[in-house]
Structure formats: C-alpha cells, structure tokens
Amino acid sequence: MSAQQIMDTTEFKRCREFHGHVCPGLSMGFKAAGAALERLKANRSEDEEIVAIVENNSCYADAVQVLTGCTFGKGNFIYEDHGKMALTLLSRKTGQGVRVALRPGAFAPDEEHLALLRKVMSGNADEDETERFHAVHLKRSCDLLDMSDDDLFVVNEVKMELPDKARIEPSEPCAKCGEPTMRTRLEDKDGMKLCRACVEYP
C-alpha cells in the first residue's frame, strides 16, 4: 500500500487520533508494530496475550500501544530507555518473540527538517518556516510509510523470559503521607511502612 492508503486505514487513523498528529515517529512505530505482529503471527492484544518492549519514549511508542493493544495499564507495555527505534514483541501463547529495529542508515536525518524542527520547537519559526516545516514533516512521515519493512528494519527472533502478568494487590496507607499505596510497593524504613515517594523525598 502507498503512504496515503496506509493513512486512510482505520488502524492508522486510530494511531493518529491517539497521538494527536501525524509525524515520522508515529509512522515508524506503526510500521514496526505491524512488522512485529506479522512476523509473530499475532493479533492485537485484547488482554495480556502479547508483551511489547519499546526502547524509546518518543511518538513511536504511541503507535505501538494502539496497534498492539499493549498498554501500561495492562502491564504488558514495557519501556527500556536505550534511545533506540526498536520494539520487541513477545507472545505468551507460543513463547516466541521478535525484535524489530531500525536498520542502520535506512532513514537518514534530513538537515532541512531538523533545522525547521528546532526553530518550530523553540518558538522562533516565522509563518513561512512553520508552513514549510509541516510540509516537510508530512513528507518525511509518508516517506517512511512508503518504505518496505525489509528496507527499514532488521528483524530477529528472540528468546527471553516473559515478565510476570499484571498483579492486583490491596492498598495500605503510607505511614507518613497516609495515601493508599499498593502493599507490594511499601518499603520498611525505621519500623514504618512508607511509600516510595516518602522514602525518596523525606
């Protein structure tokens, strides 16, 4: 499918609505999640059937959440701060896993795009520069969507231990601030059970 055809799909529209706009990061996350699901032969996770591990906290991650159904709330969306455009998807059903990472040199930075981005983000772009930025930003997003998965990503099968499923634990009041806190997150300090916030910031 062409970039426009992809952007017209229900799946991409849901990603755009969740994230708020179309951008290269969203496009790359969309492509990575689609490639991982296809390679894993998995459907969108309704509960905790699959686990997603993302290695950056950029726009990319929003598309992964929407497309895979893995979320922080369900406990099957994990963020590891490696600063990489990479996604690992694991199936609880089969025990199989796949890691999709941006291929070196596959999507080189565009100097005009970066310069305009810096100006817009700093609030120093004039009307013409802002308009040009949006045009280049959209083109870069479409360029990504037009690329084949093979040209864009390195895909490898992985074997790793699956994280525990999300647990629901009763809450108890922190002995200092009094706020209800998951029992397993309370820490003993000076004979009191304290929440981590009170331990870290006494």
UniProtKB/TrEMBL annotation:
<protein>
    <submittedName>
        <fullName>Formylmethanofuran dehydrogenase subunit E region</fullName>
    </submittedName>
</protein>
<dbReference type="InterPro" id="IPR053194">
    <property type="entry name" value="tRNA_methyltr_O"/>
</dbReference>
<dbReference type="InterPro" id="IPR003814">
    <property type="entry name" value="FmdEsu_dom"/>
</dbReference>
<dbReference type="Pfam" id="PF02663">
    <property type="entry name" value="FmdE"/>
</dbReference>
<feature type="domain" description="Formylmethanofuran dehydrogenase subunit E">
    <location>
        <begin position="18"/>
        <end position="153"/>
    </location>
</feature>
<dbReference type="InterPro" id="IPR026328">
    <property type="entry name" value="FmdE"/>
</dbReference>
